[in-house]
Amino acid sequence: MKARIKADIEKLHEEIQWLEDADSRRIMDNVLADLQTQLDAESDEQSDIQQQLEEAVTHFEAEYPAVAGILRNILTTLGNMGI
Questions:
Q1: pLDDT in tens, 7-32
Q2: Is 60 in contact with 68 (CB distance < 8 Å)?
Q3: Which of 3, 9, 35, 47 is the most exposed place for a label (fewest CB within 10 A)?
């Protein structure tokens, strides 16, 4: 499942190049950094990454639905992993 998340992260990197405002880029940079930290820790412990992802989905769903969709996929995968 981590391979699926990594593939989604690659998709996000492709999509965020189209983000036009600095606030959106900052949000995605923070989410991606925290997500990578969670994955690198290889821990199944709960973290605030789910909340961050949910907030990011809310932020992006109107203007950048592709980004929101990828974030939802990551949330689902993390949930299936118990994270």
A1: 999 999 898 888 888 999 999 999 99
A2: yes
A3: 3
Cβ-contact 81, 44 below 8 angstroms: yes
Q: Is the pLDDT of residue 53 over 90?
A: yes
- DSSP secondary structure string for all residues of 32-81: HHHHHHHHHHT--S--THHHHHHHHHHHHTTT-HHHHHHHHHHHHHHHHH
CA distances (Å), 13 to each of 17, 39, 51, 80, 81, in order?
7, 16, 20, 23, 22
Say which amino acid occupies 63. E
Q: Are 32 and 78 in contact (CB under 8 A)?
A: no
Tokens of 14: 């492709």
Q: Is the pLDDT of residue 47 over 90?
A: no
